[in-house]
């Protein structure tokens, strides 16, 4: 229901070597990819969540 933070990323315990990950968020259920740009209810990464992913995993591809 909220954006993906560093704290939420830590709790996932993603093993080293994982290079691709898909996140299931409410964006799909809400059909946000089909709405006009600027919908502020879109779930995404916070800056600290994205930085944590870069600093602590081998992930190169993220999808939602």
From TrEMBL:
Location relative to the cell: Secreted, Extracellular space, Extracellular matrix
PANTHER family to which the protein is assigned, alphabetical: CYCLASE-LIKE PROTEIN 1, CYCLASE-LIKE PROTEIN 2
Positions of transmembrane segments: none
Family stated for the protein in its record: Belongs to the Cyclase 1 superfamily.
Keyword terms: Extracellular matrix, Secreted
The protein's name in its UniProt record: Uncharacterized protein
InterPro entries: KFase/CYL, KFase_sf
Any one GO molecular function term: arylformamidase activity
């Amino acid at each position: 229901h909220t954006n993906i933070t560093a704290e939420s990323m830590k709790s996932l315990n993603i093993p080293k070597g994982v290079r691709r990950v898909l996140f299931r968020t409410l964006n799909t259920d809400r059909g946000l990819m089909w709405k006009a740009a600027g919908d502020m209810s879109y779930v995404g990464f916070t800056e600290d969540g994205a930085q944590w992913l870069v600093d602590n995993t081998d992930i190169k591809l993220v999808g939602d």
